[in-house]
Sequence to fold (515 residues):
Amino acid sequence: MHRRSLMVIVSLLLIPALGGLALAVDVGALIKVFGIGYVVHMFGDQLNALINTLTFNHGLEGQAATKVVPIVSMGSGVHIGAAQVAGDPDVVAQVAAVGQLEGTFIDGAFRAKALVPIDNLNPLAGVKRVFGVGISAVIDIRADGGAALPSDEPEATAAMPWEHVLYLGEKLSVDGNNNLIKGDVSCLEVVVAGNNNQIDGKVAGSLTLQGKGNKVGTEVGRAGPGWKLDWAGLKGKAKRTVKGGARLGDIAVDGILYVRGDVTITGPLRGRGAVVAEGKITIQAERKGTIGGDVFLISKEKVVIKGNNGRVQGFFAGPLTVQIEGNSNRIYGLMVADSARLQGNNNELIYREPERKLVELVFH
Amino acid sequence: MIWRGRQLKGTVILLVLCIAVVAATPLVTGNPINIQSLIKLFGIGYAVKTFGPQLNDLINTLTLNHDLENRDATKVVPIITVGTGGYIGAAQVSGPKEKVDEVEAVAQLEGNFMNGLFRAKALVPVDNINPMQGIKRVFGVGVSAIIDIRL
Fold:
């Protein structure tokens, strides 16, 4: 592993204990990989107390219960900041997020952002307004997380939060054709050798386009450091252990399922957890339903996505190579690894943010 | 002299009518240049006072169209900075009607936390538009929308 990877691990281990100067760098790394939602959950209580102190110091303190939740765009479900909500304790407890609706009125002279306390973090899954709750503060989060990494990022995109679909310590190779990577990419070296591929997002790292008709979003300078997992810690947290050669399909994965060897995923994985394999993970995509789920798929060797026309869901992590061999698959999630090889054609790799509890399960 | 006095009075009335017509014109024609000129000329306070009820309805329609309508009373008031009392935008507040009626402005307090990673703007419904004269928080009212005004 790289020395920079080691720095990130040390930073992560220190997060709970540190305030002060080192914190900005650490939080920056977390925002870059896991997004704003995770950071809001992590620091929400602390921010809540700080805001209440701010109003108290001006003699304008409130009497109601308060808490800090993410602001999500009602159109896309993307996390775009945070807000403090206030009201009676029982209704404040029901608030999962603040939904933002935007409107431009009276010939563009006014732009309103309606802020609605809602009961679900994912507005695309259906939400209800929580009545009797108001917004008492709005919180902007620096998209770069106050990170120390230098960036030539243009102003137009600097304010946009990172949504890493690929966060790789070493190399991304795109050898296939007509693939779409929807989300941001951070990687030391990105080589696109195939044709008509598109990276629809920000790209941090050295980029080489060799094929024809390839498109990338905004190039923003140097890549972030790689990432390393605490294998002994993951093994120690295992709720269940199975032998190598296992086939997992349509089962519940809650907590860590540890596999002593290779494993093949052939169906939906219900629950919230992680499959941690000492060997290779093979995902066999096919037309019927979703393969995988809201789980981390962690391999010590590599992950291979095979098959065609499937819908794959998962968060891939580990010191590994993710190899996408199949064609015309839609893959939802993110990949935190050493390297990735996109060999198939017509695949779509689409960013999806993991839940806070999942991130804590794997990275704490 | 009497005729001159009547003429003067008439001229004043005519002038007042002209100003009234000019001020009302943007509402009728919806000309963006005129609205923004007026905002530039008379400031955010004027804009909020003039267009507040209309904006309030528009925001309520926006939330209604997304099945997220508010059940409480709402109104649009200026956002002021606590330090200078300057007008920096507008906000819709919501709550029980008698409480909303007491709100004259939303006071904004800014704080940077955790090495500048987070910048919080606390939004406090207050009972006076002029913080120099002393303001009190109006309890039971929350902010339900923030409005940027294009100058």
About this structure: Chain A has two domains: 36-139, 164-363.
